[in-house]
């Protein structure tokens, strides 16, 4: 494991979410990635941008907290935003859409009588 840990460290973060998105697609549940088939990128870009904005705030709060995160990302630690390497901040971009896929999965598992309805659930543009 340690032989490939530096090269494959990002798989540990992205794989569970990507697997969730893939499983949802296989069982026929719409995800933010389905809009790509029709050339619509708006929802995907909005989710990625929202995650990036949240990521900047998370890193800012971490930078001024005690204790705080210390990153050890191989070969990319030269330029940082707060304490996070700038290249590592790109990891927030897929995190947003894939977290939404996780929300969709949880929503499908919870019985309809127990579900919490979001305002956007009534708007067809935002329903996954």
Brief summary of the model shown:
With 128 residues, this protein is mainly alpha-helical. Helices cover 47% and strands 3% of the residues.
Explain what this protein looks like in three dimensions:
- The protein has one domain.
- The mean pLDDT is 80.
- 14% of the residues are buried.
- α2 crosses α4.
- 47% of the residues lie in helices and 3% in strands.
- The chain has a two-stranded antiparallel ribbon.
- The chain is mainly alpha-helical and 128 residues long.
- It starts with 10 loop residues before the first helix and ends in a 19-residue tail after the last helix.
Which helices and strands appear, and what pairs or packs with what?
Layout: H1 11-26, H2 42-63, E1 80-81, E2 84-85, H3 86-89, H4 92-109
Antiparallel strand pairs: 1-2
- Classify the secondary structure makeup into a structural class: mainly alpha
Q: Total domains, how many?
A: 1
Give the fraction of residues assigned to helices.
Answer: 40-55%
Shape: globular
Number of strands: 2
Unreliable stretches? none
Sequence of strands across the biggest β-sheet: 1-2
Average pLDDT: 80
Number of helices: 4
Query: What does the radius of gyration come to?
Result: 17 Å
The major sheet is characterized as: 2 strands, antiparallel
How far is the first residue's CA from the last residue's CA? 37 Å
Run of helices and strands: HHEEHH
Strand content: under 5%
